[in-house]
Design brief:
This protein has 290 residues and is α+β, with helices and mostly antiparallel strands. It is 31% helix and 39% strand. The protein is built from eight helices and 14 strands. A six-stranded mixed β-sheet has the order 2-1-8-7-4-3. A six-stranded mixed β-sheet has the order 10-9-14-13-12-11. Strands 5-6 form a two-stranded antiparallel sheet. Helix 5 runs antiparallel to helix 6. It is globular and about 65 Å long. 21% of the residues are buried. The model has no long low-confidence stretch (mean pLDDT 90).
Length: 290
């Protein structure tokens, strides 16, 4: 990759971090060309030049905790394409949309989007955006996701759902339970895998792979708390490495690992899981590293 493409990718990452996630409007003055143009299919007119500050200020006023995470990034010539996820909570000012101002209801959201950015001589000249606006409006309560009433669950019900995940899915390998307790757009993120696992079939494949590597795997939850639509669980596992796992042939080694999961529940089903575990310790126990 050329030095120009690398420099453009670095500047694009600063765009998502400093401007969109941190709200540093000075970034616009420093790195947006006077002819800069931002377009989004949901906006009737583009934002040009310093006008872009108005959009950023409105978004961050509506979503004070707005945060962008870059999932993938490609660069060639003067173009950088970024696939990102945006998360936040509508707890500020009304969100300005074509259908009118939407008052805050304190609801969180998580959506995907993609940006085509053109950077010339260290300045942004163009941004073309596509995002899941429908998902955003549904999640913040602008209109219902379907004709079916929204399923509201208590923290106790959410904890019970997480209990089924550990006991029935992970410990017993009941793949049919995945269809019952996980949303169709389910996403599972773990550092040992380069890409998130998405969808019900993707999760079934992951569970099959895990239980093939460790047929006697046993998850035990040590601590658990719940708030709103989220549950956090601290767990440990024990198991015997009897099958291939992450490309490592079976060793017969007994292993123990510890980690923390954060679950998001949407509509009475698990919609996202973030996992962080002692992957270094696990690899050492499997003999993959010394």
């Amino acid at each position: 990759m050329s030095n120009v493409s690398e420099a453009n990718k670095a500047l694009a990452r600063r765009y998502y971090r400093e401007l969109m996630s941190e709200g540093n409007l000075a970034f616009v003055d420093e790195f947006m060309a006077p002819e800069f143009e931002f377009t989004n299919p949901t906006h009737p007119e583009p934002y040009r030049g310093s006008e872009f500050k108005n959009l950023v200020s409105m978004l961050r006023s509506a979503f004070p905790d707005l945060h962008f995470t870059v999932e993938h990034m490609l660069a060639q010539g003067d173009t950088v394409v970024g696939h990102w996820t945006a998360r936040g909570t509508h707890m500020g000012t009304p969100l300005e949309t074509l259908k009118g101002d939407i008052p805050a209801k304190g609801k969180p959201f998580a959506i995907d989007g993609m940006s085509w950015l053109r950077i010339v001589d260290g300045k942004f000249v163009e941004a073309r955006i596509n995002e899941d606006t429908m998902g955003l409006l549904q999640q913040i309560g602008a209109f219902p996701a379907s004709d079916t009433p929204t399923v509201e669950t208590s923290t106790e019900e959410n904890e019970a759902l997480v209990g089924r995940y550990f006991n029935e899915v992970m410990n017993e390998g009941k793949l049919n339970v995945i269809d019952e307790i996980m949303a169709d757009n389910f996403a599972f993120r773990i550092p040992t895998l380069p890409e998130p696992i998405r969808g019900l079939e993707g999760m079934k494949s992951f569970v099959i792979g895990l239980r093939t590597g460790f047929p006697d795997i046993k998850f035990t939850v040590e601590r658990q708390i719940a708030e709103g639509d989220k549950v956090a669980a601290r767990w440990f596992i024990i198991g015997t490495h009897k099958g291939e796992f992450l490309g490592i042939p079976p060793t017969g080694n007994k292993v123990k690992d510890q980690g923390v999961d954060i679950f998001r529940i949407t509509g009475g089903k698990l919609s996202e899981i973030w996992v962080n575990e002692n992957d270094l310790g696990l690899m050492r126990q499997l003999g993959a590293i010394s």
